[in-house]
Amino acid sequence: MCIMSGMKRAGIALLAVSLIHTICARHSTARQTTPARDIPRPIVGAIRWDGWIGNRGVVGQAVQETLGPAKWHYRLPFFAKVVGDATVEIDGTSQAVVDREIEYAAAAGLDYWAFVTYSADDPLSLALKRYLSSPLRSKIRFCLITECERWHQPAFIERVAQLIREPGYQTVLGGRPLLYLGFIETEKVNKAWGSVEGFRKALDGFRANLEAKGLLRPYIAIMDFHAPQGKTWADALGCDAIGSYAAGWQHGRVPYARWAANTESFWEKCRQTGAPVVPIVMTGWDPRPRVEKPVPWGNPYQQHNGEVDHCLPAHPVEIANHLGNALDWLAANRDAAPAQTAIIYAWNEFDEGGWLAPTVSEGSARLDAIAKVLRPGAAATRPSDSRAFSTPASNPARSTVPTAEH
Asked: For the whole model, what pTM was predicted?
């Protein structure tokens, strides 16, 4: 009996070691998603907010100041320059930078960028302009994210209609142009149109105009931070799906894994409303730079337990696994997600805490990780070193990336 007991104990110990090894392997290795035969992988986009315009106007100057302090330099995009201990230049508006971004996004397997949309003459539209003029633009498609208050401007509506007719505009469900509509507030709606019904008429006119030009009815996804409110807006405005610009909030300072889990719970909350869903995937959330150096357009960021609500930095593999979970969720919920698309927050929200674009500290590690999910088995085709745009000697932040808690 002593021998048998010892063998049992040894077997249990071996099993425990095996389980620990398996768990560690799952954490350290990005999953590789292999779609079922004859079923295409869902399409995946990433949000672009292109405030990185250098000294062109209030926005560009403000976000340079938010990332000026040395402790935030690890977030700087590959095209940024460190001028001094508290001064940086972040200008991503050149054709060379946008072309390089296209190559990075395509190599990672992203299907489209969703550009937050402004008037054609706004400096915040420069990156979209460079994308449209790029000889490489066919490598990644694009669509638009629109804020509700801009829809009362006829010139803006016409701009959206023109952009939707551009080659390479992302479509779903057999050709319907994909369009995101967010940041809807009752006060804004009433001020611009007098009522929700007035806004509905404006959108109906837009839809009818596109269909008259031979396009299919656009697939409009509402972005709202609260699933039930998103469903209310979608019903009132005749829109097609719900999701969010960002999700996962929890009080204080939390690990990324918990933030990602909260986000995945948000997908379920959206599904439970009965509305079709476009799941949001989070790369992170940490707006402390904007709280420490407030930006002119406001500070909506919550604080609890003496901390600005934020998550700890994500390991690239964690981001890849969260994205893989979104693809699994889409596959398991085809009736609830007929468009079969997910959107990632974000390509370049560096000072708000969410990014995929290469940085001076991580290089393309995040994109390399998600490529294993979006392009499993594909040979690496990433562009040359992202750091070629930066000045390595002036980037002390390379060794100061905060350590994530796992």
From this structure: 0.88
